[in-house]
Structure formats: C-alpha cells, structure tokens
Amino acid sequence: MKRASIFKRDIPVGSRKPTASPGIAQEVQGGVGDVFAVKDGDLFAWTYRGDPHYRLRPAGTGPAVLSEVLARRFPSRLLAARYEVVDLVGRSEELENLRDWAWKPAGTAVRVVYGMGGQGKTRLVARFAHDLSQVGWAVVEAHNRLAPLLGGATTAVDTAQSLDGAGLLIIVDYADRWPTPDLLAILDAHIGLPGPVRVLLVGRGLQGWWKSVEGALLDAGIDEVDEFRLSPLSDGLDREGLDVQRAFRSAVAAFSPYLGLTESSLVSVPDYAPTPGSGDALTLYMAALVVADATARGSEPPLNPAALSTYLLDREREGWWQLANSGKITSSPQQIGHVSVVAALTQALPYSAGIQAVQVAGIATSAPEADQLLLDHKITYPTTRPEMVLEALTPDRLAEDYIALTVPGAGPESDFSDPWTISALSHLLTPTQAWRDGSPALPIYIRPAVTGLVEAASRWPHLLTQIIRPLLNRNPGLVLVGGGATVARLATLAGTDANLLKLIDGQLPPRANLEFDEAAVVVAERRIALASNANTSTAEHATLLATVAYRYHNAGRRREALAPAQEAVDIYRVLADPESGNPAVYLPHLAGSLN
What we know:
Blueprint: E1 13-14, E2 23-24, E3 26-29, E4 32-33, E5 45-46, E6 52-58, H1 68-73, H2 92-102, E7 108-114, H3 121-133, E8 137-144, E9 167-172, H4 180-190, E10 197-203, H5 210-219, E11 225-229, H6 233-239, H7 244-259, H8 281-297, H9 308-325, H10 333-346, E12 349-350, H11 351-360, H12 367-380, E13 388-389, H13 396-406, H14 420-429, H15 446-457, H16 462-474, H17 484-491, H18 498-507, H19 517-532, H20 538-554, H21 558-575, H22 583-594
Parallel strand pairs: 1-4, 2-5, 7-10, 7-11, 8-9, 9-10
Antiparallel strand pairs: 3-6, 6-8, 12-13
Helix pairs in contact: 2-3, 4-5, 7-8, 8-9, 9-13, 10-12, 11-12, 13-15, 15-16, 17-19, 18-19, 19-20, 20-21, 21-22
C-alpha cells in the first residue's frame, strides 16, 4: 500500500511493508509514507525497514534510581530530571491544561511546549506522560535520525508496548533541534490512526523553526495546532499558595538524604535563592543543592548565583580525584576533565563514534588508549544506555557552563580555563575531506555540538569570539549543520554583528527551503535592524529590504513581504531614475524587486 504525503512541501515518500509483530516498534525510513496500524483487539503494530527518519520508543514509566554514593560524589546528579528527586510544584495549572488538551475530541492535535532552559519542561512533560499512561494511553518518545541514540543503526526498535485504545501520545523533546522534515514525518505517519493522537513538541523557543512546521500542519488540514509557553515558576507557586522560599526548603529537604544532611531545616535560605518572576526553576534548585551540599560538608556556600555552576563543577573535579586516588580509574583527573569536555559537546555516542571523538580531540593517540579513556569516563559517568559512551554532565546548563568555563576568556574567576579546549573544539568541528560539504560521512556528533555551542554562547559571549566565529571564518558552511533554529539563535546573539550576519546569509539556501526559511527571515530582519543603526548606503538598504521581502515570501509570509518589497521598489525607482540616478546599475534591481 502506498499513499502520498499529506504535506505539500518537500517531504520524500517511500513504500512500506508491515510486519505482524504486536506492540510499538516503529521506525520510519527513506521518507514519509504509509503507516501500518494492525489492529488486533487493543494492539497496534508499526514496523518498518531501512534507514530511519526517527524512532519511537516507549517512554519511561517512572524515575530512575540514584545511589547515595554516586550522589555524594557527584551531587549535580540530583538535578537530573530522570531521577525526579524534587517533587514537581507550581505546575498544577499547566498539567490541567495539558490534560484538557489530550482529551479534546480532535483526532490529531499538535502542541509545542516551550520556555527557556531550566524552566522544568522535561519534568512537566514527564509527569503529564505518566498521568496519561495511568489511564490507558500509549506514550512514546521520538528520537531523530541525527541523534546519537540511533548511531546509523537500521535494526528495529527493541521494545514494545500494547495500546488499549485510549490514545497515543508522542513526545518530541528538543524539537527545536530536529530537522524540520523529520518532525513532519512523524505527523505524516500518524494522522488518521484510530483513536486520539497527540504530538507534544518540547523546545526552548519557537524562532527559526516553528512557523514552518505550523504552516505545513495547517496546510495539511490539521486544525488543532497550538503553542503553550511556560509561565514563570513563581506564578505557579502563587497559584498553589506557595512561595519561592518554601519551594527552596522543600528542595533542600529532598536533597538532604542523599547528601547525609540530617537537619535540613537548619539550612538558611541565601538572599539570591528566591527569584520571583524569573521562571527559572533550575537556578532555584541549583541554589538549594549547593547550599545543602555545602552545609553537609561543613563549608560555606557561594555568595552569589553566578558561582553555582562553578561550585558544582568543583565537586565534579573532586569526584575525579577520588576515583583516581582509589584506583577505580586509571586515567588522570585531567584526562577525565578533557573527556568530559568532549562529552558535554557531543552528548552520548555509540562506542565507535566515541573512539573517533576522543582521538580527533587529541586526548588519545590510539584506539586502545581511547578505549581506556572511555571506560574510565563511563565508570565516572554511567550512560543511560549500556551500548553508549560519553555521558554528558547534567543538567544541560551545567554541561554548557563547563564548556564555557574551560575556554579561556570566561573571566578571572574561572580556574577551569584550559587552552587545550580551543584546540580540541577546533579539531572536533573542523571538517575533514571525508565530511566536507555535508557528505554522508558527517560525524553524528556535529549537529548537537554546534547547537550546544551556540546555546551556551547566549550566556557566555566569549564562546562567540573564541570558538564559533573562528570556526565559521574557516568553514562558513558549518553554520547550517545545527539547523534552522540554531541559525536563528546565532543571528540574534548580542555579539553577532553585521559581518557575521552577512557570512551566515551567504550560506543560507537561495530558494525556498523548509529547514531554513524561517531562519533566513530572522537573519534578514536582524540585518535590517543593525543597518538602521549604521552608516548604510541607500542602495545597501534597498538590497536588505528586497532580501527580507524575498525571505518572507519563501517562508509563506506574503503579507509581511509587501511592506519591505514596496519600500525597496520606491528606493530603486529613485536610484534608477534616468535624470538623477544610475539606471544602468539599478534598473535590474528595480525589475527584480517589482517581480
């Protein structure tokens, strides 16, 4: 059986052959196409063969177990969402809203939940998923084809889950980091299935990707498409009759048993812990963890929130020394620190890719040496899947801060500064001939590495000048590797100037492109904004106006294209005037703008 994609844009279509295996075991390969939903009582089977666009796996059913030994050695583990150490508070209204959305009569509905890093999106969605699973929904997580989890494998998903007919919830975390066609592949594969289908996209922001996805969904006739922005945590606490200080003390109480702190009520709340209106749950919990750990150890906690990551990273480093001194690892603490930089950049990788990464970074000179480093790092940071290596620091912010603090220029207070990092990142992200120009040999860690660097640069400006800009000067095409949302994020960084924007613009596809149309709009808008504050010539201004109009048009935002297009035409009419202008130069521009 074959059917065409429901989407009008460039989504490839391929054929499918169903298997008779019960449960959920879905991979979509080679393109979008038929879904085979074999209904046998309450069971559905979705299985494909080939190179997957994405993989669906049953979502976790509860928190992972964290040992007290590991928590005391590396207290930052207590912040990992998968352990759910701190109760979810301040989000009852959001949970109710999500439940109402799930039980709407619509057959297929898509929602994007977004908010800055550290707001608690992962915990909120995990709780929502758990609640639905308890009332009969099948809940699955999507992993994209570029994620290290896939690693190029073509074998079927190794887990299964039965459906009892209540509905299907598909969770797509880090949706803003997915290739847009792959997001649409998930939708294309599940529209029209029996029963309610809910697709929940989770990301930090909407810029550079969401309008393309939303437009394609609406064009395809999916009316239930909406956005859901998380409100500040303090708003939710107020609604529940709580306050930030009480939430802080609750977090300290949750952390205390793991840290050996018996009198958590004696912990004093630092002045910087309550952050009304910030919406940043992670900073609150980091502060609670740092204060609890310092109290348990009989030391003084940091006096300002900027030092929270430094404190926790110092504790990581202490843990490396403990493992080395006890003989549990043979690698030196410095080597573990270097491997941890690579892990923070690449995220978890299959073994062969991990061997490659530590050698390219210059930590190991041979495969056996790389193998020992990976083994010791895995003892230090056990991976969530046994076949993977290079588990990154968690939460994401701590990993990003670690990269930034090791790059010289973070500030005089950083004793993590290591010139080695500049060389290592340069080698990891400099294309060899094998993967130059985006060939199939592109290492699987490149996309998360570029995305993570740009995200970290939003809080650590020296990463733009020390790492990102030199990399792009040597290889401008690298800017596209992170996808549209990353391009948009880079374009809006405070340190991104007109020259860098011009470089980025020169790499973007000249014609309509699903992945980059919205990012191209952001770049063009940013160039206009910077030009208005600079000594831009009239002709240059007209060119920028024409460009932004063209980018709006490509993105399907034709009404927004009208004003800049008209302004560009008006300027070119003057510049091409036979009496006062230069028609030989500007008539072609005028003709292009009119067209």
